[in-house]
Amino acid sequence: MGHNKGKDNVKKRAVRRKKNDRLQAAKDAAKSATVS
């Protein structure tokens, strides 16, 4: 461990961002569905 920590963090961050984007999209869809 240690020498490729930076790369690992970038990968994890990318995965987390994708997950958050999906959650946010679902939240927005639910909100607009309840509003309309």
Describe the structure.
With 36 residues, the chain is mainly alpha-helical. It contains one helix and no strands. The longest helix has 31 residues, at 5-35. It is rod-shaped.
Features:
mainly alpha; 0% strand; 36 residues
Protein topology:
Blueprint: H1 5-35
How far apart are the first and last residues' alpha carbons, in Å?
A: 51 Å
Please outline the major beta sheet.
none
Fraction in beta strands? under 5%
Describe the oligomeric state of these chains in a short phrase: single chain
Task: State the shape.
Answer: rod-shaped
Helices and strands: which structural class? mainly alpha
- Mind telling me the C-alpha Rg? 16 Å
Q: What is the number of beta strands?
A: 0
Number of helices: 1
Instruction: Give the overall average pLDDT.
Output: 84
Uncertain runs:
none
Element pattern in H and E: H
Q: Fraction of residues in helices?
A: over 70%
